[in-house]
Write a structure and sequence with these properties.
By secondary structure, this protein is an alpha+beta fold. Helices cover 11% and strands 14% of the residues.
Length: 70
């Protein structure tokens, strides 16, 4: 196709399994270690959090429920 971009969607019940790693913050005036970044994304004491990846957040695309497994 000659479209400017291509989009793919996963069904809502799709299960993705992987590892999450982080590096220290690179934003100006934000001092966060890699552990601080992980704790921000997946807060300690919570079994799950919802993060949004990619574009189209206003229509609910890219929402992922993240589970911390120790």
């Amino acid at each position: 196709s000659r479209a400017l971009w291509q989009e793919e969607s996963l069904p809502a019940e799709t299960l993705l399994i992987g590892l999450l790693a982080a590096d220290k913050s690179r934003r100006d005036k934000v001092q966060m270690s890699s552990q601080d970044v992980l704790d921000f994304a997946l807060p300690q004491g919570q079994s799950a959090s919802v993060l949004q990846f990619g574009g189209k957040a206003s229509v609910g695309r890219g929402r992922c429920r993240m589970l911390r497994i120790s």
